[in-house]
Write a structure and sequence with these properties.
Strand content: under 5%
Number of strands: 0
Radius of gyration: 28 Å
Oligomer: single chain
Helix content: over 70%
Amino acid sequence: MTIAVLLLVLYCIVLSLLFVLAFHRASCSRMDRIMAQEELRRIKAELKTLHNWLNDRDDTGGSDAQS
């Protein structure tokens, strides 16, 4: 009977460690997702700046390319 109790305790410890590991991996992937969203926002802002710069350049008749 003591072996059964020890096995049950060991089983509970392993299950709790697996739960902690799964929770840690989920929080890491959440952080990766947040970082990717921030990077995407930064890239979109840079593209918008480039788009505005190209539109301003077209409005001036492309004087940068002619000079």
